[in-house]
Amino acid sequence: MTEIDPQLADRYATVSQGIAEACRSAGRSIDEITTVVVTKFHPASLIEQLAAMGVTDVGENRHQDAAPKAAALAALPLTWHFVGQLQSNKARAVTEYARVIHSVDRSSLVTALAKVERPIDVFLEVNLTDDSARGGVEPGEVLRLAETVLVVPTLRLLGVMAVAPLDEPARAAFGRLRAISDELRALAPHASQISAGMSGDYAEAIAEGATHLRIGAAITGKRPAQP
Ligand SMILES: *Cc1c(COP(=O)(O)O)cnc(C)c1O
Fold first, then answer.
1. Distance between CA atoms of 62 and 40, rounded to whole angstroms?
2. Ligand 1 lined by 136 (C-beta under 6 Å)
Protein backbone atom coordinates (compact mmCIF):
# COMPACT_ATOMS: atom_id res chain seq x y z
CA MET A 1 0.00 0.00 0.00
CA THR A 2 1.23 3.46 -0.89
CA GLU A 3 1.23 5.73 2.12
CA ILE A 4 -0.33 9.09 1.23
CA ASP A 5 1.05 12.31 2.70
CA PRO A 6 -1.97 13.94 4.43
CA GLN A 7 -0.85 17.43 3.32
CA LEU A 8 -0.78 16.27 -0.29
CA ALA A 9 -4.29 14.85 0.11
CA ASP A 10 -5.44 18.15 1.69
CA ARG A 11 -4.03 20.27 -1.12
CA TYR A 12 -5.61 18.00 -3.72
CA ALA A 13 -8.98 18.22 -1.97
CA THR A 14 -8.73 22.04 -1.76
CA VAL A 15 -7.91 22.39 -5.47
CA SER A 16 -10.64 19.90 -6.43
CA GLN A 17 -13.11 22.01 -4.46
CA GLY A 18 -11.83 25.17 -6.13
CA ILE A 19 -12.34 23.58 -9.55
CA ALA A 20 -15.87 22.51 -8.63
CA GLU A 21 -16.69 26.04 -7.44
CA ALA A 22 -15.24 27.65 -10.57
CA CYS A 23 -17.31 25.26 -12.71
CA ARG A 24 -20.45 26.17 -10.77
CA SER A 25 -19.91 29.90 -11.19
CA ALA A 26 -19.17 29.44 -14.89
CA GLY A 27 -22.28 27.28 -15.35
CA ARG A 28 -20.14 24.41 -16.60
CA SER A 29 -20.12 20.71 -15.80
CA ILE A 30 -17.07 19.38 -13.99
CA ASP A 31 -17.19 16.44 -16.42
CA GLU A 32 -15.82 18.77 -19.11
CA ILE A 33 -12.59 19.27 -17.15
CA THR A 34 -9.44 17.14 -17.15
CA THR A 35 -7.03 18.06 -14.39
CA VAL A 36 -3.44 17.31 -15.32
CA VAL A 37 -1.28 17.36 -12.19
CA VAL A 38 2.11 18.78 -13.20
CA THR A 39 4.73 16.75 -11.33
CA LYS A 40 7.93 18.14 -12.87
CA PHE A 41 11.05 17.74 -10.69
CA HIS A 42 9.11 15.76 -8.08
CA PRO A 43 10.13 12.14 -7.44
CA ALA A 44 8.26 9.10 -8.73
CA SER A 45 7.09 8.42 -5.16
CA LEU A 46 4.94 11.57 -5.24
CA ILE A 47 3.33 10.50 -8.51
CA GLU A 48 2.65 7.10 -6.97
CA GLN A 49 0.78 8.81 -4.13
CA LEU A 50 -1.22 10.92 -6.59
CA ALA A 51 -2.24 7.77 -8.47
CA ALA A 52 -3.30 6.16 -5.18
CA MET A 53 -5.47 9.25 -4.54
CA GLY A 54 -7.24 8.74 -7.87
CA VAL A 55 -5.26 11.12 -10.09
CA THR A 56 -5.30 9.80 -13.67
CA ASP A 57 -3.39 12.49 -15.61
CA VAL A 58 0.08 13.79 -14.88
CA GLY A 59 2.19 16.36 -16.72
CA GLU A 60 5.93 16.76 -17.17
CA ASN A 61 7.98 19.41 -18.96
CA ARG A 62 11.45 17.92 -19.34
CA HIS A 63 12.25 14.66 -21.06
CA GLN A 64 15.34 13.83 -18.98
CA ASP A 65 13.33 14.24 -15.78
CA ALA A 66 10.16 12.57 -17.03
CA ALA A 67 11.47 9.48 -18.84
CA PRO A 68 12.85 7.56 -15.83
CA LYS A 69 9.75 8.32 -13.76
CA ALA A 70 7.41 7.20 -16.52
CA ALA A 71 9.45 4.01 -16.92
CA ALA A 72 9.40 3.29 -13.18
CA LEU A 73 5.64 3.86 -12.99
CA ALA A 74 4.64 2.20 -16.26
CA ALA A 75 2.38 -0.26 -14.41
CA LEU A 76 0.15 2.51 -13.03
CA PRO A 77 -3.01 3.53 -14.91
CA LEU A 78 -1.75 7.05 -15.70
CA THR A 79 -1.98 9.19 -18.82
CA TRP A 80 1.26 11.16 -19.23
CA HIS A 81 1.09 14.64 -20.74
CA PHE A 82 4.11 16.56 -22.01
CA VAL A 83 3.67 20.29 -21.36
CA GLY A 84 7.16 21.73 -21.85
CA GLN A 85 9.19 22.96 -24.79
CA LEU A 86 10.00 20.00 -26.99
CA GLN A 87 13.06 19.66 -29.20
CA SER A 88 12.32 17.86 -32.45
CA ASN A 89 15.12 15.36 -31.84
CA LYS A 90 13.43 14.27 -28.58
CA ALA A 91 9.93 14.03 -30.04
CA ARG A 92 10.00 10.29 -30.64
CA ALA A 93 11.46 9.49 -27.22
CA VAL A 94 8.81 11.58 -25.47
CA THR A 95 6.00 9.79 -27.28
CA GLU A 96 7.25 6.50 -25.82
CA TYR A 97 5.40 7.51 -22.63
CA ALA A 98 3.43 10.71 -23.31
CA ARG A 99 0.11 10.26 -25.04
CA VAL A 100 -0.67 13.97 -25.15
CA ILE A 101 1.72 16.75 -26.23
CA HIS A 102 0.52 20.22 -25.17
CA SER A 103 3.37 22.22 -26.68
CA VAL A 104 3.34 21.84 -30.46
CA ASP A 105 4.41 25.27 -31.69
CA ARG A 106 6.17 24.83 -35.05
CA SER A 107 5.93 22.78 -38.21
CA SER A 108 9.36 21.12 -37.75
CA LEU A 109 8.01 19.53 -34.56
CA VAL A 110 4.90 18.37 -36.43
CA THR A 111 7.19 16.76 -39.01
CA ALA A 112 9.10 14.94 -36.26
CA LEU A 113 5.91 13.75 -34.54
CA ALA A 114 4.47 12.61 -37.88
CA LYS A 115 7.27 10.00 -38.11
CA VAL A 116 6.02 8.24 -34.97
CA GLU A 117 3.70 5.40 -35.96
CA ARG A 118 1.37 5.42 -32.95
CA PRO A 119 -1.51 7.88 -32.45
CA ILE A 120 -0.63 11.06 -30.53
CA ASP A 121 -2.98 13.73 -29.17
CA VAL A 122 -1.65 17.27 -29.61
CA PHE A 123 -2.44 20.80 -28.57
CA LEU A 124 -1.05 23.83 -30.42
CA GLU A 125 0.70 26.10 -27.93
CA VAL A 126 -0.13 29.76 -28.56
CA ASN A 127 2.10 32.64 -27.48
CA LEU A 128 -0.17 35.16 -25.73
CA THR A 129 2.65 37.58 -24.86
CA ASP A 130 4.09 40.41 -26.98
CA ASP A 131 7.47 38.70 -26.84
CA SER A 132 7.93 36.54 -29.93
CA ALA A 133 10.91 34.80 -28.28
CA ARG A 134 8.51 33.07 -25.87
CA GLY A 135 7.30 29.53 -26.54
CA GLY A 136 4.20 29.13 -28.66
CA VAL A 137 3.06 29.94 -32.15
CA GLU A 138 1.92 33.51 -32.83
CA PRO A 139 -1.90 33.84 -32.77
CA GLY A 140 -1.98 34.74 -36.47
CA GLU A 141 -0.11 31.54 -37.38
CA VAL A 142 -2.30 29.05 -35.52
CA LEU A 143 -4.49 28.02 -38.46
CA ARG A 144 -1.51 27.53 -40.75
CA LEU A 145 0.15 25.28 -38.15
CA ALA A 146 -3.14 23.45 -37.59
CA GLU A 147 -3.29 22.58 -41.27
CA THR A 148 0.08 20.83 -41.04
CA VAL A 149 -1.25 18.70 -38.16
CA LEU A 150 -4.59 17.91 -39.80
CA VAL A 151 -2.97 16.17 -42.78
CA VAL A 152 -1.11 13.68 -40.54
CA PRO A 153 -3.37 10.68 -39.86
CA THR A 154 -1.62 9.66 -36.63
CA LEU A 155 -1.91 13.10 -35.03
CA ARG A 156 -5.18 14.00 -33.37
CA LEU A 157 -5.55 17.75 -32.93
CA LEU A 158 -7.27 18.39 -29.59
CA GLY A 159 -7.14 22.19 -29.57
CA VAL A 160 -5.07 25.09 -28.25
CA MET A 161 -2.89 25.57 -25.18
CA ALA A 162 -1.39 28.64 -23.52
CA VAL A 163 0.26 30.04 -20.43
CA ALA A 164 -1.12 33.39 -19.27
CA PRO A 165 1.37 36.29 -19.51
CA LEU A 166 2.46 37.77 -16.18
CA ASP A 167 1.76 41.37 -17.12
CA GLU A 168 -1.99 41.29 -17.72
CA PRO A 169 -5.04 39.82 -15.97
CA ALA A 170 -5.25 36.10 -16.77
CA ARG A 171 -8.93 36.30 -17.65
CA ALA A 172 -8.26 38.75 -20.51
CA ALA A 173 -5.49 36.55 -21.92
CA PHE A 174 -7.64 33.42 -21.68
CA GLY A 175 -10.43 35.34 -23.43
CA ARG A 176 -8.10 35.83 -26.39
CA LEU A 177 -7.22 32.13 -26.30
CA ARG A 178 -10.92 31.28 -26.41
CA ALA A 179 -11.36 33.46 -29.52
CA ILE A 180 -8.42 31.64 -31.17
CA SER A 181 -10.05 28.34 -30.19
CA ASP A 182 -13.27 29.47 -31.92
CA GLU A 183 -11.31 30.22 -35.12
CA LEU A 184 -9.64 26.82 -34.96
CA ARG A 185 -12.99 25.11 -34.48
CA ALA A 186 -14.28 26.75 -37.63
CA LEU A 187 -11.45 24.96 -39.48
CA ALA A 188 -11.46 21.71 -37.44
CA PRO A 189 -14.69 21.25 -35.46
CA HIS A 190 -13.29 18.37 -33.38
CA ALA A 191 -10.33 20.48 -32.14
CA SER A 192 -12.44 22.09 -29.44
CA GLN A 193 -10.34 21.54 -26.30
CA ILE A 194 -8.48 24.29 -24.45
CA SER A 195 -5.44 23.58 -22.23
CA ALA A 196 -5.12 26.56 -19.88
CA GLY A 197 -5.01 27.35 -16.20
CA MET A 198 -2.29 26.69 -13.64
CA SER A 199 -2.14 26.91 -9.83
CA GLY A 200 -2.76 30.65 -9.74
CA ASP A 201 -5.29 31.12 -12.53
CA TYR A 202 -7.33 27.96 -13.06
CA ALA A 203 -10.61 29.63 -12.05
CA GLU A 204 -10.14 32.31 -14.75
CA ALA A 205 -9.29 29.58 -17.27
CA ILE A 206 -12.44 27.64 -16.41
CA ALA A 207 -14.47 30.84 -16.85
CA GLU A 208 -13.02 31.13 -20.37
CA GLY A 209 -13.73 27.57 -21.42
CA ALA A 210 -10.61 25.60 -20.43
CA THR A 211 -11.04 21.84 -20.66
CA HIS A 212 -7.54 20.79 -19.52
CA LEU A 213 -6.03 22.41 -16.42
CA ARG A 214 -2.30 22.01 -15.79
CA ILE A 215 -1.88 22.37 -12.06
CA GLY A 216 1.44 21.92 -10.28
CA ALA A 217 2.44 23.52 -6.98
CA ALA A 218 -1.07 24.08 -5.60
CA ILE A 219 -1.41 20.28 -5.47
CA THR A 220 2.16 18.96 -5.27
CA GLY A 221 3.55 21.60 -2.93
CA LYS A 222 6.72 23.52 -3.59
CA ARG A 223 8.82 22.06 -6.38
CA PRO A 224 12.30 20.73 -5.60
CA ALA A 225 15.03 22.80 -7.29
CA GLN A 226 15.63 21.98 -10.96
CA PRO A 227 18.19 19.23 -11.22
C1 LIG B 1 5.06 24.06 -14.40
C2 LIG B 1 3.98 24.22 -15.40
C3 LIG B 1 2.63 24.25 -15.01
C4 LIG B 1 2.19 24.19 -13.57
O5 LIG B 1 2.51 25.37 -12.90
P6 LIG B 1 2.06 25.66 -11.40
O7 LIG B 1 2.14 27.14 -11.28
O8 LIG B 1 2.99 24.94 -10.51
O9 LIG B 1 0.65 25.18 -11.26
C10 LIG B 1 1.68 24.37 -16.01
N11 LIG B 1 2.01 24.45 -17.31
C12 LIG B 1 3.28 24.42 -17.72
C13 LIG B 1 3.58 24.54 -19.17
C14 LIG B 1 4.31 24.32 -16.78
O15 LIG B 1 5.59 24.31 -17.20
1. 7
2. no
